[in-house]
Write a structure and sequence with these properties.
The chain is of the alpha+beta class. It has a single domain (about 5-240), classed as 2-Layer Sandwich (Alpha-Beta Plaits). Helices cover about 30% and strands about 30% of the residues. It has 6 helices and 9 strands; from the N terminus they run E-H-E-H-E-E-H-E-E-H-E-E-H-E-H. The protein has helices spanning about 20-35, 50-55, 80-95, 145-165, 205-220, 245-250, and strands at about 5-10, 40-50, 60, 70-75, 105-120, 135-145, 170-180, 195-200, 225-235. The protein has an 8-stranded antiparallel β-barrel. It is globular, with a radius of gyration of 17 Å. The model is unreliable at about 250-253 (pLDDT under 50).
Length: about 250
């Protein structure tokens, strides 16, 4: 049985000052470790986009085009207590003088875990894919455009699309999350989304090119709008220079 019930996503843009490294060091060495005090915090990881990742995006609409950083916290029981304490921990750290400048938020919310997949090449159970070392992720954010056809579409996704994506070389596994009316907090951003996280074994930008065709076929005439489909690389606090934005990359989609 999977201990994880919810994924809390925090998606953000670049620091206003143009250098994300001070924030990333603080988050990796201070803020994220503190989350493991929470009773239902199972795991957390951060990813960020390089110029090559930005160039490999298949979709980036509206504010979602500004998502340069992805954080995902996996949570389980006691879920309500964990969420409440999670949302207050930042204030406690700020009172201690341990809250760095914020990155501009583009989305923040908790989504129900729906299903998990593992590639046969990964040789692990689907339930443990996030705990396996990864090179990065490919993040897919979608919203429904036609609720009358949406259930049929989700059945096709389960039966055809996800098995196809998890068979793409470099995809180690997939976890799927969706907004749930049963999980709402005042701090969550509005919206009804489905977020698919593909965990990657290979260079994210290279896997992104392999996913481009399968995603285009999946979206053809589908009752969904892709808001973001983009690769991100695993963040190491000891190697942050590769995530520094460059003027040439700022206008890339």
């Amino acid at each position: 049985m999977n201990r994880v019930e919810l994924g809390f996503f925090s998606l953000s843009g670049h620091a206003v000052r143009g250098d994300d490294r001070p924030y990333l060091r603080w988050h990796q060495l201070d803020h994220m470790p503190e989350q493991y005090q929470l009773p239902g915090l199972v795991f957390g990881q951060r990813w960020a986009a390089t110029p090559a990742d930005r160039a490999a995006r298949a979709a980036a609409a509206d504010r979602w085009s500004e998502v340069e950083h992805v954080v995902l916290y996996l949570m389980g029981e006691p879920l309500d207590v964990t969420l409440d304490e999670f949302l207050t921990l930042g204030r406690k750290l700020a009172e201690m003088g341990r809250y760095s400048e914020r990155l501009p938020s583009r989305y923040r919310g908790g989504l129900r875990l729906l299903e998990t997949w593992a590639s046969p090449a990964a040789l692990v159970s689907p339930e443990v894919v996030p705990f396996r070392p990864n090179r990065g992720i490919y993040l897919i954010v979608e919203e429904a455009t036609d609720r009358g056809r949406y259930d049929d579409h989700l059945r096709r996704v389960h039966a055809e699309v996800l098995p196809g994506l998890v068979s793409v070389p470099g995809v180690a596994g997939i976890w799927v999350f969706a907004t749930s009316s049963a999980i709402r907090k005042p701090n969550f951003d509005d919206g009804d989304y489905r977020i698919t996280v593909c965990y990657l074994d290979d260079e994210p930008a290279a896997v992104a090119e392999r996913l481009r065709g399968p995603l285009a076929r999946a979206w053809a005439e589908a009752p969904v709008r892709p808001l973001l489909a983009a690769p991100y690389e695993s963040v190491s606090v000891w190697d942050l220079d590769r995530f520094v934005p460059t003027p040439a990359a700022e206008g890339a989609v």
